[in-house]
Design a protein that fits this description.
The chain is α+β, with helices and mostly antiparallel strands and about 325 residues long. The protein contains 11 helices and 4 strands, in the order H-H-H-H-H-E-E-E-H-E-H-H-H-H-H. Helix 7 crosses helix 11.
Length: about 325
């Protein structure tokens, strides 16, 4: 707890790296929400309050502050998150970037539509929206705007491979009847590339039962949920960036007990926060997703890794 203000100050430095904030109080509230999320691993607003240092005496006052932020129409999430994502992708010029589109249902009432950057076995949110919709299948008109926003965030000279499943089949986007379609010569790599789409499922899992417990939220407003997803996305981007830095420095095994990397970059960064705060180590003050190949790909076991490769080969032989 004594190092919580340091974590807050670090996150404020990260968030202040663009000038799109209409009110500095919006930035500071987001930083405290991220602090609470990192410390508790839960999106419970009440659980975050003990980690907030402010003039408010009562926990209820801090919860109201968070609720006002989530309901504030002046907070436009993509104008605030986009520049930071652009900064994270600055090293991807002339590289190949995989972007996946998928949906996730909340309480059979709200549909979270998200485009994410596939990154080292997981995915990092790029753009998203939440709509009141009873199905995970959405029309092209619902996500066309997301595609346009995403196009402005990736480096201009970057090659983008777009991945989606049949739930997004639309004549305005892709032929309706297809298995795996590519405008390049196909090979085993084609099936492997399409398989990267499933990494976004891990991102949704991190948001839900394997991480931030999004489904325990009591929010029932599409726009409020969209801003809550901003808190999750910004925290994910920072922790994955931190995990990238830890692995790059050869310090992964300080927080990951596996001989080979068995923990996601998100979890490595998350564990490193506690490790660093308990020892007075500095934390990174910027976000960055490396375009280099993963120096330590996650391997549950060599046998499972070979079986996964064999499945791709067999899948290609079946459709070739």
């Amino acid at each position: 707890m004594e190092n919580t203000p340091y974590l807050y100050d670090t996150l404020v430095q990260v968030l202040r790296q663009h000038r799109n904030w209409l009110d500095l109080r919006h930035l500071k509230t987001l930083a405290w929400m991220m602090v609470g999320l990192i410390h508790t691993g839960s999106i419970s607003l009440c659980a975050w309050t003990p980690y907030v240092v402010s003039r408010a005496w009562y926990s209820q006052s801090t919860v109201r502050r968070f609720r006002r932020w989530l309901d504030n129409d002046r907070i436009e999430v993509h104008a605030l998150y986009g520049p930071l994502m652009q900064q994270a992708l600055i090293g991807w010029v002339d590289k190949t970037l995989y972007v996946a589109l998928d949906t996730s249902m909340l309480w059979n009432t709200y549909c979270l539509v998200r485009l994410s950057v596939i990154y080292r076995g997981r995915a990092v949110p790029l753009v998203w929206c939440v709509i009141e919709h009873p199905s995970a299948a959405v029309a092209y008109e619902e996500y066309q705007g997301l595609l346009e926003k995403a196009a402005t965030l990736v480096p201009f000279a970057c090659k983008v491979v777009f991945l989606a499943d049949r739930g997004f089949a639309d004549t305005a986007l892709m032929d309706e009847y297809w298995y795996v379609i590519s405008d390049e010569p196909t090979a085993v790599q084609t099936v492997e590339e399409y398989g990267l789409r499933f990494d976004i499922e891990e991102n949704f899992l991190d948001d839900k039962s394997n991480g931030f417990q999004l489904e325990s939220s009591r929010l029932r407003s599409a726009k409020a949920l969209e801003r809550l997803c901003f808190v999750l996305a910004m925290t994910t981007l920072y922790l994955v960036s931190l995990g990238t830095s830890v692995v790059q420095q050869g310090k992964r095994r300080f927080v990951d007990p596996h001989w080979f990397r068995g923990t996601s970059y998100l979890k490595i960064g998350w564990k490193w926060v506690s490790y660093a705060l308990s020892r007075g180590y500095a934390l990174i003050t910027s976000v960055y997703l490396s375009s280099e190949s993963d120096p330590e790909p996650a391997v549950a076991s060599k046998k499972q890794a070979q079986q996964r490769q064999d499945r791709f080969v067999f899948a290609y032989q079946d459709v070739a």
